[in-house]
Amino acid sequence: MSDAVEGRYFREVLGHFPTSVVAITTTDSDRQPRGMIVGTFMSVSLEPPLVSFLVDGSSNTLRTIRTAGRFCANALAGNQERLSRRMAGGPNRFEGTEWEESPLGNPVLAGIVAWVDCTVEKIVELGDHQLVVGQVRTLRVESMKTPLLFFRGGYGDYLSSAGLLLDRLVGW
Ligand SMILES: Cc1cc2nc3c(=O)[nH]c(=O)nc-3n(C[C@H](O)[C@H](O)[C@H](O)COP(=O)(O)O)c2cc1C
Fold this sequence. Notes:
The chain has one domain (about 5-170): Electron Transport, Fmn-binding Protein, Chain A (Pnp Oxidase, Chain A), CATH 2.30.110. The relative contact order is 0.20. The chain has a 7-stranded antiparallel sheet with strand order 3-2-6-9-10-5-4, sandwiched between helices. Strands 1-11-12 form a 3-stranded antiparallel sheet, with no helix packed on it. Strands 7-8 form a two-stranded antiparallel sheet. It has helices spanning about 5-15, 60-70, 80-85, 160-170, and strands at about 20, 20-25, 35-40, 40-45, 50-55, 70-75, 100, 105-110, 115-125, 130-140, 150, 155. With about 170 residues, the protein is α+β, with helices and mostly antiparallel strands. It binds flavin mononucleotide. The site of flavin mononucleotide has 15 residues, from strand 3, strand 5 and helix 2.
């Protein structure tokens, strides 16, 4: 990395860009659930319907997704910080977590906001990460819960300004 973009400073500044918290899930060859947390999920194209996320090239989950050829993106809710911490590392990521199979056979986690079930369209190497592009097969809004967010190295919940206004009006 060049002196102009020192690693710690890069992370520090980029940490000031808020992200969503999305659990990317799949299953291994024994149909065991596998997954990880990403803050890089985004929609890519409407025609055809494509979404994507970026994953470290050394990721175990990436290896499983390559083999399975499918994944599900689960948008976590504001009250799922503990679930996110568990799914962002360690061996027992699905312990105590309820889930159902998506149409493609990927875990859809209980209590989330929305999910997008995908087959892998393309994986593109970009620096030390891989851009995983998925073709959307099924997608659904599960609840009207507020989403979990990540900002300046910490978790937070979303508060809409419309909601604030409503609260103020109701409070009158
Ligand atoms: C809020 C948050 C966002 C994250 N975003 C990403 C991401 O976009 N890409 C990535 O590769 N790892 C990301 N991580 C880290 C992975 O979840 C973590 O390294 C995980 O252990 C990878 O698992 P694996 O190596 O078994 O695939 C994020 C972690 C957190 C807490």
